[in-house]
Amino acid sequence: MAFASFNEFLAMGGHGPYVWTSWAVTAALLGGIVIHARSERRQLLRNLQRRARRERRLAGGRAPVSHQRGGHVDDT
Amino acid sequence: MWTFIHKLGSPRWFYAISARLQPWFWAAAALLLLVGSVWGLAFAPADYQQGNSFRIIYVHVPAAFLAQSIFVAMAVAGLIFMVWKIKVADMAAAMMAPLGAAMTFIALFSGAVWGMPTWGTWWMWDARLTSMLILLFLYFGVIALRGAFSSRDSASRAASVLAMVGVINIPIIKYSVDWWYTLHQPATFTVTSRPSMPMEMWLPLLIMLLGFYSFFIALTLMRTRSEILRRESTKRWVRDLAAEEA
Amino acid sequence: MPGTETPMTDTEAAMPFHREPRGGLMVALRATLKRDLVLLLRRRSEVLNPLVFFALVITLFPIGISPDPELLATIAPGLLWVAALLAALLSLDSLFRGDYDDGSLEQLLLTPQPLAALGLAKVAVHWLLTGLPLALMAPVLGIMLSLPAGSYGILALSLALGTASLSLIGAIGAALTVGLSRGGVLLSLLVLPLYIPVLIFGAGAVQAAILGDGVAAHLAILGALLAVTLMFAPWAIAASLRISING
């Protein structure tokens, strides 16, 4: 251990602000990158699932859908 | 051998293999970065000249190393894409560029902050900082060029060519900037190159370096997987996969 | 089927042109050089504009900084080099733009001759009508910036050597961005970082000449940079043109 107390550790021999800003910016950037990558992946999977659901719905109910649409045209 | 490479080059195989590799690299990155940080910040002895401000080295040097390595990796991926038309290589290159720019930014920022206690000024036209700045512009160029094309294939090939041109130029830029610096500036105290660094200071640096590299590999694998989902979203296996994970 | 729609005599007359003439590459090179020279000389403003820009930028500095001859003399080498570099950059966008717009660039790609050589010919013309005039004009502007005597020759020589590399490197960027409608700013973003080594050694040569040091080393490095770019750039230009046309 290079420091006697926790306060000394924070002070970094008077260079505290410089050391801690460098480390904080680095940590924030790395963390932000990871969070971005995770949310990107989740978003993509969600989009794919939404599309899959929509396609399943369209494939399953094609005939009723076209019938309904025809009905609509008749109504208006 | 070739069949293996082409299998790895197919997005589906890459997706499967990277899923197995990825957790290991994430674990290695987390462990190494944690150990390196604690060791570097709290246990490594203070520098006899710079005191505790030298602890910035543990983020500055790995970021600077990685910034240069990523550009080389990007150019190699570009070459693989251009020669063998392996799409995964281009996806990886596209994902590497922003990370490389971020690493260059970290190196620049920590270098500038480090400059205050050592030089007494936020910015010096120091050889290392100057070539880092130029590297940042090179990254911006590659990212901007990729974004400027409307066709994805053209964008990929143009970015690959630019990355290769850039990688040939990086050593030339580096040496000419070094030469320029020795000519113009009085010999100041160089921050990072010291004749001998005691083992207790050097080991945490090595650990941090390895941690940064693991982070880079893990993140590139993860984002390349995302990019595969994005670009291959019409393929059958991707749809099955999405349905599976639902 | 030829001959069914056109008269026989026409196809016979056209036949010899389908065969590749002897010394095809030299013929193609000479034709490209001649065509580009004629085209550029007809659009005289495109040749003159970079020169006017160069003079104008140099005029701005004494106004913006100070008319003090001593101060100007110290910054003159770098100033002249930076201004010449920007002027050369300004002319790059038109290097392939005209040919791209009228479709002759596609014809260039279709020729059986290697595209790298033809691209090199186009770059040579660009340098002849941009880099060389800039180099010849620089000493005059050097007088206005009270550049110390004895460095004028080196200024012109270093610029002539350096702008050749600049044209070659710049042509890669121009080829990459020619297919984009708003390629201008992007072009400078791509190309300027790559210009830095040339700038360092070009301005260094002039500075060394002022200080009375040997300039041979600087000029040799500028020559080496030119040799390296001459080796790699044509292939990159050809690849970039293919990307821009086919994409």
Automatic annotation (TrEMBL), chain A:
NCBIfam families: cytochro_ccmD
Xref: InterPro entries: Haem_export_protD_CcmD, Heme_exporter_D
Its job: Required for the export of heme to the periplasm for the biogenesis of c-type cytochromes.
Organism of origin: Halomonas flagellata
Subcellular location: Cell inner membrane
Protein's recorded name: Heme exporter protein D
Domain of life: Bacteria
Region (Disordered): 54-76
Lipid metabolism among keywords: no
Spans through the membrane: 20-37
Membrane topology term: Single-pass membrane protein
Keyword Membrane among UniProt keywords: yes
Keywords: Cell inner membrane, Cell membrane, Cytochrome c-type biogenesis, Membrane, Transmembrane, Transmembrane helix, Transport
Coiled coil: none
Stated family: Belongs to the CcmD/CycX/HelD family.
